[in-house]
Amino acid sequence: MGKITVVRRVVQVAMLVLFCLPPLLAGWGLAGLFAGGDGEVATPAEGVLFGSLSSSSVAGITLLDPLATLEAMAASRSLLTASVLVGALLVVLVYGLVRGRAFCAWVCPVNLIGEGVDAVRRRVGIAVPERTVDRRAKIAVAAAVVAASALVGFPVFEAVSPIGAVNKGLAFGGFAGAGTLVAIVIAELLVSRRVWCRALCPLGGVFQVLGRVGQVNVAIDHDACIHCDKCAEACLADPAILTPVLAGEDTIVRAGDCMACGACVDACPAAALRFRLGRPRGASRGKADSAPVAACPSSR
Ligand code: SF4
Ligand code: SF4
C-alpha cells in the first residue's frame, strides 16, 4: 500500500470514529445499544459534534452535504433557514476549493467498503468489467433525485442513502440504507468494478460538478513518464480521466471526477505524478469531462 493510501485509510477510519464517538460519549453503546432505561440516556445532540456524514451539527453550525441541501430545498420548496444555508455553503466552499470528490475518497465510508470489496474480488479472482456505465450518469441521477424530492415532498435519497447508513448504523443502530449498501456490494462483486462510486452515486455526481474547479490536482512530468499505464489501472474514479495527461495533451488531471485519492501517484513506478495546487490553463481544458466514455472490456 502506497504512502498516500495509508494516510487516506487513517483519515477514512478516523472520520467514521469521529461520527460514532458522540453517541458513545453520551452513554450509548455501539449500534444504539445502551445499559439502563430510556430515561437515563443522554442526547448526543447536545455535544460539539453530532450527526452523520450527510447532515451534522458542528459547534452549533448545521452542515448539510450539497445533495441533501438541494433535496431539502426541493422537498420544502423553500430556501431553508439562513443558518442552514450558510452551513451548506461552507461545505460547498471547502470541497469546491479542494476537490469535490475528495469527499468520496477521503471521507465517505461507502468508498472504503467499495475498495474493500474490490480487493476481495481481486483476491478471489472474480472478474467483472472495468466500466459499464458512463460516469456522468451520476449527475443525471442527482438531478432525478432532486426532482423526485420536489414531487413527493421529502428528500428521497436520504431515506435510502448508503452513506449515512454506515455511520448511523454503527452509532445508533439505524439501518435505513443498509439495503442499498447490500445492493452496491453485490453489484460491485458481480456486475461492474466500482459501479456505484464511479457512475451511480448522486452525491458523487454533485461533487463531480464541483470538482471542475478544485485546486488540488494530480500533475504529470511528461519526461519522467514511461507509459506503463499503472496509474490508469489504479485509478479509483475512472481510468479515462488520466487519458489527457498520459497522451501529453495536458499537465494536470482536470476531470471533476478525480477524487484526489492519490492511488495513481502511489502506483507510478517512475515518480512522474504528484499533487500540485492550482489549475494552469490547458489545451484540453474541459475535454476530460466531456469526452465520451469508450467501451472498456478489461477486467482485473
Ligand atoms: S486520477 Fe489519480 S487521484 Fe484522481 S481519482 Fe484517479 S487515481 Fe485518484
Ligand atoms: S504510472 Fe507513471 S510512468 Fe506509468 S503511465 Fe502513469 S504516469 Fe506514466
Automatic annotation (TrEMBL):
Residues 216-245, 249-278 form the 4Fe-4S ferredoxin-type domain. InterPro entries: 4Fe4S_Fe-S-bd, 4Fe4S_Fe_S_CS, Electron_Trans/Redox. It holds the Pfam family Fer4_5. The chain crosses the membrane at residues 79-98, 139-157, 169-191. Gene3D superfamilies: 3.30.70.20. Residues 281-300 are annotated as: Disordered. Signal peptide: none annotated. The keyword Cell cycle does not apply. The keyword Transport applies. Keywords: 4Fe-4S, Electron transport, Iron, Iron-sulfur, Membrane, Metal-binding, Transmembrane, Transmembrane helix, Transport. PANTHER family: FERREDOXIN-TYPE PROTEIN NAPH (PTHR30176:SF3). This is 4Fe-4S binding protein. The lineage of its organism: Bacteria, Bacillati, Actinomycetota, Coriobacteriia, Eggerthellales.
